[in-house]
């Protein structure tokens, strides 16, 4: 192993830059050459590959987004496209590749591995929807972004005695809503893993008002519906003024938290170690506070574990 490359693919996540930095500086520390591939698999197909030095990743650990940019590539999804990608990597004498992204990015890495390129995947997604790892890069920052928003929304919601429904990201995984809802003291947390009863929700809101509660905060995961449609139904049934807030892509931005910076740094370091050891088609993650790695196919085949206990706690404390 003489030369490795790193790319970011799929949706961006805070902490990706910290992971890039860790990969580059660890590789250089081990006397490996490092290349940066811009715009993910799309940039790979176009040969957007540049040498990386220690100075290339200076002052980026605190920045959100990804300095390498990210994009999606339809061409790479074809067998012919992947073969061309391998030829491009070989043209640049790249022996190993670190892919930072989600499940789709990992599947692409796995296909490259089958064609002779050593690949290691790092979980970079705010959704926290990869079952094999307890946490993904960017999740903690996204949760804190949501928490800051709902703290502010609670102030205005209380002033107007409103119901406030906040829609957060996560695709079909409700972790952002669950964690931020618990930390933010939400009265209701609606998740795709659990579902909800509309009439029961509205009855709870009315009962809370009768007991003197001046506001009601509901966290809604995007995978189960839209905040605006639910707000209209809640207001029609309860007669209480209800406002919807969709936080959207604000959750993907911002300076990564300490937790995400450390997680990304640990993952990046381990990725280079694995490539140096001749490993391929593996992904790095964390389980019970320890950094782990396992086969990509095995990782992606694991069913996602929903934290029932955390959900129970959230409702007991609401």
From TrEMBL:
Binding sites annotated in the UniProt record for Mg(2+): 103
Substrates-to-products reaction catalysed: beta-D-fructose 6-phosphate + ATP = beta-D-fructose 1,6-bisphosphate + ADP + H(+)
Active site: 127 (proton acceptor)
Primary location class: cytoplasm
An MF annotation (GO) of this entry: ATP binding
Pathway listed: Carbohydrate degradation; glycolysis; D-glyceraldehyde 3-phosphate and glycerone phosphate from D-glucose: step 3/4
Protein function: Catalyzes the phosphorylation of D-fructose 6-phosphate to fructose 1,6-bisphosphate by ATP, the first committing step of glycolysis.
Name this protein carries in UniProt: ATP-dependent 6-phosphofructokinase
Pfam families the record matches: PFK (PF00365)
Protein residues bound to ADP: 21-25, 154, 185-187, 211, 213-215
Cofactor(s) it depends on: Mg(2+)
Family: Belongs to the phosphofructokinase type A (PFKA) family. ATP-dependent PFK group I subfamily. Prokaryotic clade 'B1' sub-subfamily.
PROSITE patterns: PHOSPHOFRUCTOKINASE
Binding positions for substrate per the UniProt entry: 125-127, 162, 169-171, 222, 243, 249-252
Assigned GO CC terms: 6-phosphofructokinase complex
All residue ranges annotated as the Phosphofructokinase domain in the record: 4-275
EC number, as in UniProt: 2.7.1.11
């Amino acid at each position: 192993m003489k030369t490795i490359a790193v790319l970011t693919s799929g949706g961006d996540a805070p902490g990706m830059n910290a992971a890039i930095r860790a990969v580059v500086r660890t590789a250089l520390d081990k006397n490996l050459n490092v290349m940066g591939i811009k715009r993910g698999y799309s940039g790979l197909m176009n040969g957007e590959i540049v040498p990386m030095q220690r100075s290339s990743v200076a002052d980026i650990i605190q920045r959100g987004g990804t300095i390498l940019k990210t994009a999606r590539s339809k061409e790479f999804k074809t067998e012919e496209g992947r073969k061309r990608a391998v030829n491009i990597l070989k043209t640049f004498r790249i022996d190993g590749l670190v892919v930072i992204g989600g499940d789709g990015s990992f599947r692409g890495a796995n296909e490259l591995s089958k064609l002779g390129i050593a690949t290691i995947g790092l979980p970079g997604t705010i959704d926290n929807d990869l079952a094999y790892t307890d946490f993904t890069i960017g999740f903690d920052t996204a949760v804190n972004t949501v928490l800051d928003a709902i703290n502010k929304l609670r102030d205005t919601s209380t002033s107007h005695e409103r119901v406030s429904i906040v829609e957060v990201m996560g695709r079909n995984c409700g972790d952002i809503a669950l964690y931020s809802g618990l930390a933010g003291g939400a009265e209701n947390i609606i998740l795709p893993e659990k579902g909800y009863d509309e009439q029961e929700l509205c009855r709870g809101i009315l009962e809370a008002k009768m007991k003197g509660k001046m506001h009601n905060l509901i966290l809604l995961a995007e995978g189960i519906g839209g905040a605006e449609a639910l707000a209209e139904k809640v207001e029609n049934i309860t007669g209480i003024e209800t406002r919807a807030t969709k936080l959207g892509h604000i959750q993907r931005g911002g300076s990564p938290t300490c937790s995400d910076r450390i997680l990304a740094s640990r993952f990046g370091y381990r990725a280079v170690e694995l490539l140096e050891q001749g490993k391929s088609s593996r992904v790095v993650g964390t389980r019970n506070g320890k950094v782990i790695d396992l086969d990509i196919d095995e990782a992606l085949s694991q069913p996602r574990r929903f934290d029932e206990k955390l959900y129970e706690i959230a409702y007991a404390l609401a």
